[in-house]
Design goal:
With 176 residues, the protein is mainly alpha-helical. The protein is 73% helix and 0% strand. It contains seven helices and no strands.
Length: 176
């Protein structure tokens, strides 16, 4: 019944676009304290986006696949969490999930674009394998490069002034 009213084809995509645009406008504070302008812009962009059929088709193809991808990541997280140590969880797992997540995103986007006919004639299905191999190669390369950096102990010994690019994320220099 909800589908016959257009809830899934129009209302939900509109609300999603409206929420994203409004959040971005508020975060960037483009119109500072005038939230009414941000609401109007987000409303107009949301309405204009659901006006065209290819937009709602894209959403109806993308989000079921995205749900499956998130479920796969959650299952991997649960299984890996049962059988790994704290060291592995802190050092290796984020990179593994980055690689698996990148492969899932590329696969989801490729399948969605292929189903909508947006990449017909560009390449055969063998391109997915090459994209996955290239992504895994990049993730392995990143793990190797990050793994060769100095440890936190070495950084503490050098002091804040000599850290340079190795300043750990989330740690800021103390105010002077």
């Amino acid at each position: 019944m909800l589908e016959s009213y257009g809830i899934f084809d129009f209302l939900l995509p509109f609300l999603l676009v409206f929420a994203f645009v409004f959040a971005i406008l508020n975060y960037t504070a483009l119109f500072s304290k005038n939230r009414g302008v941000s609401v109007i812009i987000a409303f107009v962009i949301g309405l204009m986006s659901v006006r065209f059929k290819f937009f709602t088709d894209f959403y109806s193809e993308l989000f079921p696949r995205l749900g499956i991808g998130v479920t796969v990541l959650l299952a991997i997280l649960i299984l890996v969490g049962l059988f790994t140590t704290q060291f592995t969880k802190k050092r290796v797992l984020p990179w593994i999930f980055l690689g698996v997540g990148a492969v899932i995103i590329i696969s989801i986007l490729y399948q969605t674009f292929d189903r909508l006919g947006w990449i017909a004639g560009l390449a055969g299905s063998e391109i997915v394998g090459w994209i996955i191999i290239a992504t895994l190669f990049l993730v392995i390369l990143i793990v190797i490069v990050v793994g060769t950096g100095p440890s936190d102990e070495e950084l503490r010994k050098k002091g804040l002034d000599e850290m340079g690019m190795w300043m750990p994320l989330g740690r800021h220099r103390p105010e002077e």
